[in-house]
Amino acid sequence: MSAPQDKRRALTPEALSMMDTIARTGSFAAAAREMGRVPSALTYSVRQLEDALDVLLFDRSSRQAVLTAAGQELLMEGRRLLQELDAVANRVRRIATGWESELTLAVDDAVARRALFDLMDAFYAETIEGGGPPPTRLKLRVEVLAGTWEALLHGQADVAIGVPAQLQTSNVLCESAGELEFAFCVAPHHPLASLPEPLSASQIAEHRIIAVADSARLMAPLTVGLLPGQDVLTVPSLATKLEAMLRGLGCGSLPTPMVRRHVEAGRLVRKATYEGRRTGLMHYAWRDTGHAPGKALAWWLDKLRSEATRKALLEQHEGLLL
Fold this sequence. Notes:
Blueprint: H1 4-10, H2 13-25, H3 28-35, H4 39-53, H5 69-97, E1 102-108, H6 113-125, E2 137-143, H7 146-153, E3 159-163, E4 172-186, H8 201-205, E5 209-212, E6 232-235, H9 238-246, E7 252-255, H10 256-264, E8 269-270, E9 278-287, H11 295-304, H12 307-315
Parallel strand pairs: 1-2, 1-3, 5-6
Antiparallel strand pairs: 3-9, 4-7, 4-8, 4-9
C-alpha cells in the first residue's frame, strides 16, 4: 500500500490535468495528441498514478477511456482542485496589481442591456499601467427581484445593479440608481383593451396576468402585481413576458422604456389602472469588506455614480431585440 506522502506526490497538477484531458477527449490516443505526448507515455503515467493511489482509474475491458467510479471521483475532485489552484494564483495576482481576477455583476432583468454593454465596452477599452486592457474577467448574471439581492448577499456577485429596494444590512453598501416607471399594457385584441379607464382591480383580476418568476432560491421570493384569485402565467424573463403580452396571452406591467415603441406602433395598448402611476426605486449595491475595493469594482462604482449612467441603465431599452 502506498504511503500518504507517495499519494500526495502523485496528485500533481500535471497528473490531474492529464486525467481531465483523457476524460474530455475520450481516448488515450486523442489525449496524447493534444498533450504532445506518445500514447505509451500517457499510459505509463496513468499506471504510475494508479499504483500510487492503489486504485484502478480506467476500465481496461473497454476500448475507450472509460473511467471507473474511483476515476470519476478523482476527475471531479481534480477539476475542483485545479480551479482552486487557479483561484489562489489569481488572488496573488490581485494583491500584486490591485485588479481582481474576476468581477461578477448581478443585474436585475429590468436593467437596459444596451447601456450595460456600453459600460462593458468602456471597461475593456481602458488601458492599465503597463499597457493592455484590465486583466479582470467580467461575469454577468441576470436575476429577477430578490434573486439580485441573493446573488450579492451569498457571495455570487460583487456588485448588484437594479435591486428593487434598499436592504438594511451591515455588510452591504447601497446607493439609489433612480426611479423606474412601469406601464400596464395589453394587446389590442385583449378584452381589457376596450374597457374605459382607469381599470379597476376587479376588472383586472378577471384576466390572466403574466408574471416573471423571482430567481431567488434561498431568500423569500417577491410577488408583484398579482391579485387574489387571479390566473397567472409565470415566465422566466421580462423579454418572455413581453412576447406573451404581445400575443394577448395575458395582461401585466413592464418598464415603460421597454414597451414604449410597442405602444407607439400599436402592438400594445397602455391602460391606466386603479393604482395610478406606478414606479419603483432601483438601487445598486456592493459588499462592504472593510477594505478598499479592487480596481475593477472601483471602476464600476465610479461609473455608477454618474447620473447619466444610472439613467441609461434604466431607460435605454430601445433598439434591442427583447
